[in-house]
């Protein structure tokens, strides 16, 4: 959402539905926009009244802000990120040169208090920071921002902070309907978009845009920086020209997004890569300018009633089958390793499936029925098919970065029986969110309801100060 704030900080607070410190992996959060005059009163308020300019010029201002606006709420509120500037490259004010100095001063303030390893400093961007996003492998940053981006990326890499991006497939569809299908934007594409440079298959725009950022980072030799989505979502209402802005489409997009993220499938170029995502927004905001859709991104109305139902466990309120991007065949199919895949790609995909993909790979171990023939393609085929069947036999579940292919002939042999039609179904990629069993039963996997993170906004308007509000979910849809 371009140019929302001229001068801004985003204050990220993690407030748990249940304590899930044992958990690793991707998470879903909610952006708490405050551009409205009819929202419920927050429980806690952190007063913020400094400008980006003063943060960049004076260390004492950053020190004072951390002490006055973070410390009083920490660690009772689990503060995880402070982002300096929101989409500054979209601002009509020439503020980008102030961001990195301000980031350094905020980091220094955190170091003085020993919090720099617990609270990361970054800055959010719109997709407009790229000059090209398709095909994903051609993703490139806009050269006009080079003076700002290079030192910022160096800061992120040095301090292990994420690259924060706001991604909205809705806008790509709305503004280019002749080029982008609605199903592709909603994680429901029945066909695949192929990156001609890599051969990777994309079934949704969200993944394609994420990978475009990763390729842009790699093009500048920043290979260790992770991407974090600080805003994404879909509006539930729009102007007459915004026919895709409906409650059904908003519910479909966000439900499929949640499933996609908590399954830890990653993206075609980053298979199994964890991705943290914040849904925009908690409430509709009646004071936002622009088309009608701008005021209708909320999950809730200001009176705290739901705009539509949304299930954060990943099982979903939409009447669909398992994972996001589902396209089921009417006949029985299996997924095996592609004969065109390189050994290194197969090994990486196999390692992911037997690890974060939660496939039981016992059958391909020595002395087990699928160990022979003892080669990578055979082992990968059995494991790929197990993941494929456990996750609804969907197209995306047989992608494996382009190393998996679907077939309609049963590949079982001797005593090695390939799973079919979900038989012997075990927990798949979204295990973390679907059971209440004790986490001690499987190391590294937390069996509990997904935690809810709130991304709090604080905008520094030239006209005066605003507040950032901390509010936690207790039980959906009740807000306390």
Automatic annotation (TrEMBL):
Keyword DNA repair included in the entry's annotation: no
X8 domain span: 333-418
InterPro entries given in the database record: GH, Glyco_hydro_17, Glyco_hydro_17_plant, X8
GO molecular function: glucan endo-1,3-beta-D-glucosidase activity
Reaction catalysed by this enzyme: Hydrolysis of (1->3)-beta-D-glucosidic linkages in (1->3)-beta-D-glucans
Keywords, in A-Z order: Disulfide bond, Glycoprotein, Glycosidase, GPI-anchor, Hydrolase, Lipoprotein, Membrane, Plant defense, Signal
Domain of life: Eukaryota
Secretion signal, residue range per the UniProt entry: 1-25
E.C. code: 3.2.1.39
Annotated localization: Cell membrane
Entry keyword annotation includes Lipoprotein: yes
Membrane topology: Lipid-anchor; GPI-anchor
Entries under SUPFAM superfamilies matching the protein: (Trans)glycosidases
A cellular component term, taken from the record's GO annotations: side of membrane
GO biological process: carbohydrate metabolic process; defense response
Family, per entry: Belongs to the glycosyl hydrolase 17 family.
Protein name from the UniProt record: glucan endo-1,3-beta-D-glucosidase
Organism: Medicago truncatula (Barrel medic)
